[in-house]
Amino acid sequence: MTEQGVRPTAEQVLALAPDVASRKAGAGLGGAGPWSQTGDSASGLVWGVCKGSGSTPYRTVVDLTGPAYKCSCPSRKFPCKHALGLLLLRAAEGFEGGGEAPDWAAGWQAGRAAQAGRTAAAENGPVDVEAARRRAERRAARISAGVTGLEQRLEDVLRAGLAGQQQAGYAPWEETAARMVDAQAPGLAARVRELGTIPSCGPGWPARMLEEGALLHLLNRGWLGLAGLPEPLAATVRSRVGLPGSGAEGEAVRDRWLVLSQYDSVSPDGRLTTRRTWLHGLGSGRPALVLDFGPPGRPPSLALPMGLVLEAEARFRPGTAGLRADLGERSAPAAPDGRVPAGVSTGAALEAYGAALREDPWLDSWPVVLGPVIPIPGELGWQLADAEGTSALPVALTGGGSRSGLWQLAALSGGGPVTVFGECGHRGFTPLTAWQPGCPEPVALG
Predict the structure, then answer these.
(1) Helix (H, G, I), strand (E, B) or coil at 47
(2) Residue ranges for the chain with pLDDT beneath 50
(3) 3-state SS assignment for residue 58
(4) Are 10 and 92 in contact (CB under 8 A)?
(5) Strands of 383-386's sheet, edge to edge?
(6) Distance between CA 354 and CA 203 in Å, rounded?
């Protein structure tokens, strides 16, 4: 079977659903009953017409190379239930496939290709270098003024003593964060907000606040002394402060990328959804983090089920410890691969995180595949212990981790060794995906 002919499983299709309701509704449309004029092409296009409650059926088309979705239904969800149902029907081999795409499907695909060409032309078009330089200088001056004020704020807190921060409350920190936003330093604003929440986080907060405050001070000093830093570290400081970087400025790596994990997080104000997709280069062995964002009421558009492999170019942004990447042109639709990534020991995981900290001292975690390891619950917290050895890593429930995912991991293990992918950091290891011995199908934890 050609790569274009490999069909994602029903589980992989349902993993694309933006929420539980869409997953349930899509599953209800996975049969042949409401569908007609279905087909697919070697270019990764899938189409079909679905009978709805109205007199006019819905035209649904999916571009697997995106993936991207288009449906004439009024739903604001991506993918909608009709797109999910169409892919489920295809996964169950509910239609033979092939055939010539109708005009409405082929026209949509051609429009996507044309838009991609216009975007590339705009990105590569002429740039007013002098105007860009002046804008950069004005923004740098605003950031420097904001950093100077932030340093004064940190000094005042230390002089007054950390003990008074519980009584002072969060409001002064939110005011400081707003000043960082005005200074066009969103990275600093996020760190200030996190620092302000620490006094209410339970026992041991003074030590944690001192640590995070020291890291923030280090970042401030890095910005103020940016001209004297080596370029890789200077790029990291710019990225951490919040200056946007571009994948066009970084290294391009073409590889076959295995999707290890994908999960969403919502900003504290609920206005922005961030989707984190972890990839592993099968040829280069390189990890990559792809971020996608969704505005209020709409999920991020990038949806890559775990276990699929896509052949594409990844452009790594400078100043992100070699992790943050933008996906470029894809050579073929994503397809299942059926392999389990090789795992390392807990000691090797800590060494990898330590090495990454040399490039980025503000790095919270590093992607690692552990294995074989055994999950061990305990009164003081869970651990992942090497199946052969005496070392272990504490489990931290941050980011995409959840307590239900820990019991799911224990059930998969059954007391035996498993392979686990997650984020290894100073708070411990957050498990995100697991594989049972002899089973290539990944399981999302949570």
Answers:
(1) strand
(2) 1-5
(3) strand
(4) yes
(5) 392-394, 383-386, 365-376, 418-425, 428-435, 443-444
(6) 27
